[in-house]
C-alpha cells in the first residue's frame, strides 16, 4: 500500500512516516502544497494524509483540484481541534475522513486501514482468497490456517493483490506500489518477489495471466506459470 503524507511540520511528518511504515505502507512525503498537488495528481496512491495548513498552496485548494482532475485516492485530512468549519468544508470538497490534531497515532492507523479497505471494496480486515488468508491489521499471511513468514515487502505485494482480488494487476502497477518513485527498480524486481512468495505460499495461490500480470487464485488449482 502506497501512502503520501502532506505535512509541513517536520516532527509530525516524521512521526507519521514511522507509524505508517510500521503499519505496512510505502510512504512518500510532500512538505508544501504545490509539490503535494503535483504528486497526488500524477501518481497513484492508496492513501493520502493531508494537512490543511500548508505553505504555497492550502490543503482545501489542493483537495478540490485533485477531485476536479479525477484523483480518486482516499484522503484523510488533518485539522486543528475545534475547526469544525474546516472539517465540513473538507468533507464537502471530497475528503473521505478527517482527524483533529492532536491525535493518537493508533487511531490514525486504524482510520487509514479502513479507508484503504473501503476504497478496494473490502470492509473486513481479514481477507480470505482460496487457501490464502491475509490479515491487513496484523500484517500476516496464512495458508490453510498455517502462518507463513513474509517480509514487509512480500506482505505489501500479497496484500495489494488481496485488495485487488477481482482483477489482474500489471507488473508496472505492482512495481509502483512496492517501490514508489524509485526509478532504479525494474520489472524483474517484482518477478523476484513473486518467485519468493510462490515458494512460501505454495502452488495454486498466485496466478499469472501472460502479458497482463498477476492475480490471486480463488480455487485450489495451480496458477499459470
The gyration radius over C-alpha positions equals 18 Å
Topology order in helix (H) and strand (E) letters: EHEHEHEHEHEEEEHHHEE
Biggest sheet descriptor? 5 strands, parallel
Structural class: alpha/beta
Overall body shape: globular
Q: Order of strands across the widest beta sheet?
A: 2-1-3-4-5
Number of strands: 11
In terms of DSSP E residues, the strand content is 15-25%
The CATH architecture designation of the largest domain is: 3-Layer(aba) Sandwich
Unreliably modeled segments: 220-225
As for the CATH topology of the largest domain, it is Rossmann fold
Brief characterization of the structure:
The chain is an alpha/beta fold. It has helices at 10-22, 33-42, 59-68, 84-93, 105-119, 152-163, 171-179, 187-201, and strands at residues 2-6, 26-30, 47-51, 75-80, 97-101, 126-129, 132-135, 140-143, 146-148, 206-209, 213-216. It has eight helices and eleven strands.
Write structural notes for this entry.
- The protein has 225 residues and is an alpha/beta fold.
- 42% of the residues lie in helices and 22% in strands.
- Strands 2-1-3-4-5 form a 5-stranded parallel beta sheet, with helices on both faces.
- Mean pLDDT is 89; it is low at 220-225.
- The protein is built from 8 helices and 11 strands.
- The two termini are 25 Å apart.
- The chain folds into 2 domains: 2-120, Response regulator (Rossmann fold); 126-216, Arc Repressor Mutant, subunit A (Orthogonal Bundle).
- Helix 7 (171-179) crosses helix 8 (187-201).
Amino acid at each position: 500500500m502506497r501512502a503520501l503524507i502532506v505535512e509541513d511540520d517536520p516532527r509530525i511528518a516524521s512521526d507519521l512516516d514511522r507509524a505508517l511504515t510500521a503499519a505496512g505502507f510505502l510512504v512518500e512525503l510532500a512538505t508544501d502544497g504545490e509539490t503535494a498537488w503535483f504528486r497526488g495528481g500524477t501518481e497513484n496512491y492508496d492513501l493520502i494524509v493531508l494537512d490543511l495548513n500548508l505553505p504555497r498552496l492550502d490543503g482545501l485548494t489542493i483537495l478540490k483540484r485533485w477531485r476536479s482532475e479525477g484523483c480518486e485516492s482516499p484522503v484523510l485530512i488533518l485539522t486543528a481541534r475545534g475547526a469544525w468549519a474546516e472539517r465540513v468544508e473538507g468533507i464537502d470538497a471530497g475528503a473521505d475522513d478527517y482527524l483533529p490534531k492532536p491525535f493518537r497515532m493508533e487511531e490514525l492507523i486504524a482510520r487509514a486501514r479502513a479507508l484503504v479497505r473501503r476504497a478496494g471494496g473490502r470492509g473486513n480486515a481479514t481477507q480470505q482468497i482460496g487457501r490464502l488468508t491475509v490479515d491487513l491489521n496484523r500484517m500476516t499471511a496464512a495458508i490453510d490456517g498455517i502462518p507463513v513468514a513474509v517480509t514487509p515487502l512480500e506482505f505489501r505485494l500479497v496484500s495489494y493483490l488481496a485488495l485487488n482480488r477481482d482483477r489482474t494487476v500489471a507488473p508496472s502497477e505492482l512495481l509502483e506500489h512496492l517501490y514508489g518513485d524509485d526509478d532504479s527498480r525494474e520489472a524483474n524486481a517484482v518477478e523476484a518477489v513473486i518467485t519468493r512468495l510462490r515458494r512460501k505460499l505454495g502452488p495454486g495461490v498466485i496466478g499469472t495471466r501472460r502479458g497482463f500480470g498477476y492475480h490471486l487464485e480463488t480455487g485450489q488449482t495451480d496458477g499459470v506459470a
